[in-house]
Design a protein that fits this description.
The protein has 394 residues and is α+β, with helices and mostly antiparallel strands. The chain is built from 13 helices and 9 strands. A 5-stranded mixed beta sheet has the order 5-4-3-6-7. A two-stranded antiparallel ribbon has the order 1-2. InterPro entries: MLTG-like (IPR003770).
């Protein structure tokens, strides 16, 4: 009898072990296999949350089939205590193991809302936007000009959340003074910028910042980024350029940046200035005159006067020979590369063509014809504007 009982016990034990092994195998397979999520979602992990709360939220959103298995997998991988607060993008079909990695790996939030301080040439704006997880595109919630417009409720609400990201985005062609003044308006930053950064030394780009970051440290990041870009461009420069130092390349790039907003024209504009330098011609470019008037402190906001074109300032290339002594703005990578590798042309003149771009010329006669066409376009536009004003715009 005892032998029969022992035999049954062994059988039950083997069956139990077999079933346990099957359950473990099923659990492991389910944990690492494609999940049930059909559309991307933003997973919100509040500060102080635990894996039980997160797993229940994931089940409600259709991202996991078993909250218990999700938690057991996190425990097995010893990641339950590594949960990070934030908003995280989870793509369709992400496995439970993949989701655990997403909510425990740390770093910046990859989903949710962000506040972007856009530092443009003509204005500074604050944009509040939220990522749509389905389209992976940001949807604007609010936009305003700080100090000039009333602060929207959406900004106050979103900027106070723990998982909101903050960015400072510099446009190509802004001046160092404009950047410093804009950073003063970023209320999430602390500290003062004691010295104005050298013109041209800041890389136009988008920089993520965190509440409490020091303004001077943000400037240092921008400076380090521009130093790398300038070194790369100078290293890649054409060997026969009339440019001897990285600083001269930076100056030329800043002029190119201010002369055209058409990306496809940068190399042609660069070729005009390089050809003029090679031929000993003055650069005669209006942005250098404007910089001599404003010294980068804001926008001129009007046309240049004849007296200003003749004024002797260190930057006025109608008066001085060669390059001005400093950059006139902060150029981006594309303008740095255009200065380093200009197009091979014989152009020495260009003028606006009425489309936002320029008409280029090799001879003065050709240039004068282009100028006459531009003057005609200006006159026609002026007459049209006057006609619209007299008829109330109809």
């Amino acid at each position: 009898m005892w032998r029969h009982i022992a035999s049954n016990a062994v059988t039950f034990l083997l069956v139990g072990l077999f079933l346990l092994g099957g359950i473990i195998l099923w659990g492991k397979t389910t944990y690492v296999s494609e999940g049930p999520l059909e559309q991307a979602i933003c997973v919100q992990v509040e500060r102080g949350s635990n894996m039980r709360q997160v797993s229940q939220s994931l089940e409600e959103q259709g991202a996991v089939s078993s909250p218990a298995l999700f938690r057991m997998g996190a425990d097995y991988e010893e990641k339950s205590s590594s949960l990070k607060a934030g908003s995280f993008l989870v793509q369709p079909g992400t496995s439970m193991q993949g989701i655990v990695d997403i909510v425990t790996q740390g770093g910046a939030s990859t989903c949710g809302t962000e506040v972007v301080y856009r530092v443009g040439v003509n204005r500074v704006s604050v944009q509040v936007r939220e990522l749509d997880p389905v389209t992976s595109r940001f949807v604007e919630r609010a936009e305003f000009t700080p100090g000039e417009e009333e602060t929207p409720e959406a900004y106050s609400e979103i900027s106070s959340k723990n998982d909101t990201r903050f960015r400072v985005a510099l446009a190509e062609g802004v001046t160092s003074w404009q950047v410093v003044e804009a950073l003063k308006q970023v209320e999430q930053l602390t500290g003062e910028v004691e010295d104005l950064p050298a013109e041209g030394s800041l890389a136009p780009d988008s920089y993520e910042v965190r509440p409490g970051d020091d303004r001077a440290e943000v400037i240092a990041r921008m400076t380090a980024a521009q130093r790398v870009l300038l070194a790369q461009a100078f290293e890649a420069r054409d060997p026969d350029l009339p440019i001897e130092t990285p600083e001269e390349l930076l100056i030329l790039a800043s002029i190119i940046e201010k002369e055209t907003g058409v990306a496809a024209e940068r190399e042609q504009v660069a070729s005009v200035f390089v050809n003029r330098l090679n031929q000993g011609m003055r650069l005669q470019t209006d942005p250098t005159v404007i910089y001599g008037v404003t010294e980068g402190k804001g926008v001129l906001g009007r046309g240049l006067r004849r007296s200003e074109l003749r004024a002797e300032t260190p930057w006025n290339t109608y008066v001085i020979n060669g390059l001005p002594p400093t950059p006139i703005a902060n150029p981006g990578r594309a303008s740095l590369m255009a200065a380093a590798q200009p197009a091979e042309t014989d152009f020495v003149f260009f003028v606006a063509d009425g489309t936002g771009g320029h008409a280029f010329a090799e001879t003065l006669d050709e240039h004068n014809r282009n100028v006459a066409r531009w003057r005609q376009i200006e006159a026609e536009r002026g007459a049209e504007a006057a006609g619209n004003a007299s008829t109330g715009g109809n």
